[in-house]
Write a structure and sequence with these properties.
Layout: H1 2-34, H2 45-56, H3 61-67, H4 75-87, H5 92-119, H6 128-139, H7 148-181, E1 188-189, E2 195-200, E3 212-221, E4 226-229, E5 238-240, H8 247-253, E6 261-266, E7 286-296
Antiparallel strand pairs: 1-2, 2-6, 3-4, 3-5, 3-7, 6-7
Length: about 300
């Protein structure tokens, strides 16, 4: 019986404590919400310039914070952090902590995404926790696992070998696609490696290299991803010289009669090759639907 009485008393005390804490938190929150800021007193020109400088420094800040993922309801937290940093600006310990947070942000938001991308679809995909551990061990000069030079050499060699592997894989996938595509009905294969299907046969003039052509087009990766289209840039056709575009286009446009619509299958060496272009990875085989609507002499 005594055991249950003690337990009951403990529950009462706990409930009382929790209620008191809840009231205290509510009171503190209410105090913070109703806190009145001290009025700004500008006694002279120096005061006015100083205040104006502070206001001016916030130009573009709100949009920057929004782009950084700070929500409107988090502005109080942002200001609290700002005030704490200002209050401790001469504190060396706090300065070091802030520097650590800044470097962490650069590593996470600027460096890590590129490393993750480089090693995606390779046997050496990145384990983030171990990357961070390697970073902190190096800062602490802990060489138990790897020396600095050893780590740099190993990482560089792995980066290069994985990059080469991805290149070879991308090229092989494109070649396999073109080999299978060439066997399909209606596909015409040229000595250059360019393939095409005539979707609509025109009977107009065939452009020369020095002419300006007017075309509607849509470009896709071989997985079907649309990376560009003339319709994305307005209702008017795109206008350019055949020599101003990739080799696969140049070859096709100087063979197409006006009024034609062809589907082009362009090997990577007649497209962008090693160069990435927007959504187009390096060494990509491309598909374009191209309609030649006119020529400007």
């Amino acid at each position: 019986m005594k055991k249950y009485v003690i337990l009951a008393l403990a529950l009462v005390v706990s409930a009382s404590f929790n209620t008191t804490e809840a009231k205290k938190k509510k009171k503190d929150q209410k105090t913070a919400e109703t806190e009145v800021k001290a009025p700004v007193v500008l006694n002279d020109s120096r005061d006015s310039v100083s205040y104006a400088a502070g206001v001016s420094l916030t130009n573009g800040l709100l949009s920057y914070l929004q782009q950084s993922g700070i929500k409107a309801e988090q502005m109080g937290d942002f200001l609290q952090g700002f005030k704490e940093a200002i209050a401790s600006k001469d504190d060396d310990q706090q300065k070091a902590r802030r520097m650590g947070m800044q470097i962490a942000e650069q590593v996470v938001n600027r460096m890590l995404p590129g490393i993750l991308k480089d090693f995606t679809d390779t046997p050496d995909s990145i384990v983030e926790d171990l990357l961070f551990r390697g970073f902190t061990d190096a800062v602490e000069n802990d060489t138990t696992v790897m020396l600095q030079k050893q780590a740099e050499t190993f990482f560089r060699e792995k980066s290069e070998s994985n990059k080469q592997m991805k290149i070879e894989k991308q090229i092989a996938v494109g070649k396999q696609f073109l080999a299978e595509n060439a066997l399909k009905e209606g596909v015409i294969k040229l000595p250059s490696g360019l393939q095409y299907i005539i979707l609509k046969q025109g009977d107009g003039e065939v452009p020369q290299k020095e002419d300006k052509v007017k075309v509607h087009y849509e470009g896709r990766l071989i997985d079907g991803t649309v990376f560009d289209a003339s319709s994305k840039h307005g209702s008017e056709p795109a206008t350019f010289q055949p020599t101003q575009v990739i080799k696969g286009w140049t070859e096709a446009l100087t063979m197409m009669p006006v009024g034609s619509k062809w589907r082009l299958f362009i090997p990577q060496d007649l497209a962008y090759g090693a160069r990435a272009a927007g959504q187009i990875p390096p060494y990509s085989t491309l598909i374009f639907d191209v309609e030649l609507v006119g020529i400007e002499k």
